Amino acid sequence: MSLPNTLYLPELREMLAENNAAELREFCTALHPARTADFMEGLTPAEAWRVLQFAEMPVRVEIFGYFSRDKQLDIIRLADRQEIAEFIAHLPPDDRVDILNALEPELVAELLPLLPAAERRDILRLRAYPENTAGAIMTTEFARLPEDLTVRQALDELARQAAELETIYYIYIVDSQDHLEGLVSARQLLSAMGRPDTMLRDLMERELVTVNVTDDREEVARKVARYDLLAIPVVDQERHMLGIITHDDVIDVVVEEATEDAYHMGGMAPLVESYLDTAFLTVWRKRAGWLAMLFVAELFTFTALASFEDAIKQIVALSLFVPLCISTGGNSGSQAATLITRAIALGQITVRDWYRVLAHEMLMGLALGCTLGCIGFVRAALTPQGILGDVSHWELAWVIAQAVALICLWGTITGSMLPLIFKRLGIDPGFASSPFVATLVDVTGIVIYFTIAKAYLL
Question: How far apart are CA 369 and CA 408, in angstroms?
Fold first, then answer.
């Protein structure tokens, strides 16, 4: 079969209707699994599962991995329990645990007894680790060898293990109790083929970068990025080798964390499905909750303005500069919050660095405040006298300059400290985002502005 770049669904459904095994097998193998999954996007879960039956198990697993999570779950729900249990047993350990965690507990209870004992024990062990830890995202399939093998023996043993392994970037050297002793890269091993009697203990690296099974997945991602690793070993407190986390899993972590932070910084709860696939009511609920909370918080600006009603009546021009002053605080606070949240995510600062951050941002807030205050001074000085009444241009300009400078300083301090406070409380620093900081600084900014105005002009 000559496969075109775009295979229309009617053609694929026609193959299914005719049960054309030869063409369906070729369809499953002719392209990269990701492209094959794309062509199957319009099929129902039942049709997609029928197509997968014509592929060998390794290819079937690869194609299935490129389906959306919803489609994967739908396939598992409708397929024959014995067939799907056999299929799940061939999935990478970390992937099958993620899928089972997303299924209904009743269905998981049906499937687990149908799995081979070794895979069932592995699933139960991985599911026991807390979510978002290294143990929850690791795979237990990795190349392991004892140190007393020669290069020739090691290559023979790897050839035997290869069919069951997800990747062979590194070969981990362990003792009889599975304690991690060292590492030999696949490149080192192949380079040593000219010296086949060389012992692995003479080749292996002993100073290794590892993560503990309970480490947060963000810490794992930072280590993999910092040391430019293709995979990182996961160990327990006694340095038993438990599994590895590969770079593709780390990429998934980085994307998920960045997506979550982006949602939080936009002031809404994260979406599980894609934007267009998410139900309207779900999107409304996730957005309305945060907006309602922020709206209620913004109502305090009304209270703050009402308390300065007399000042506004006496000098109407003061109200003209309210948006200018409070937006300054919101913008400077959001800017600082973004910088600090990002620095926390990259591991550049920790909660213990709060005093250094505070000192740095106080200086930065003063510098930025003076800069914006000068601009505000000029603008206020150019206000027509007819609007000001009995107030002097220069007095108003001085008030605006001071208010802008102090609000900018306050916004910068608030925006830099809130992420650290949230982190200390165990809350995602992403929540100390633009809407949250802006709302807080809006209310306090009004108080700062009118307090200065009353002191000078009234």
Answer: 5
Rounded Cα distance between 98 and 303, Å, is 48
pLDDT tens readout for residues 373-382: 999 899 888 8
Residues 406-431 pLDDT 10s: 999 999 999 899 889 888 888 777 76
One CATH from 3.40.50.2000, 2.60.40.1120, 1.20.1250.20, 1.25.60.10 for 9-132 = 1.25.60.10
Q: Three-class SS string for 303-360? A: HHHHHCHHHHHHCCHHHHCHHHHHHHHHHHHHHHHHHHHHHHHCCCCCHHHHHHHHHH
CATH architecture of the region 280-457: Orthogonal Bundle (1.10)
Longest dimension (CA), the chain: 97
State the SS3 of 168-228. Answer: CCEEEEECCCCEEEEEEEHHHHHHHHHCCCCEHHHHCECCCCCEECCCEHHHHHHHHHHHC
Q: Identify the bridge partners of residue 139 per DSSP, sorted by sequence position.
A: 244
CA-CA distance, 76 to 79, in Å (whole number)?
5
How many angstroms separate the CA atoms of 449 and 411, rounded?
Answer: 13
In this structure, what token pair is assigned to residue 434? 């633009």
The CA distance from 179 to 147, in Å, is 12
Residue recorded with tokens 């300065």: 308
Mean pLDDT of 24-35: 89
pTM of this structure: 0.63
pLDDT confidence band for 262 (50 / 70 / 90): low
Which fold would CATH assign to domain 143-246? CBS-domain (3.10.580)
Give the model's pLDDT for residue 69.
85
Neighbours of 201 (CB within 10 A): 15
DSSP string spanning 403-446?
HHHHHHHHHHHHHHHHHHHHHHTTS-GGGSSHHHHHHHHHHHHH
pLDDT in tens, 238-256: 999 999 998 888 888 877 7
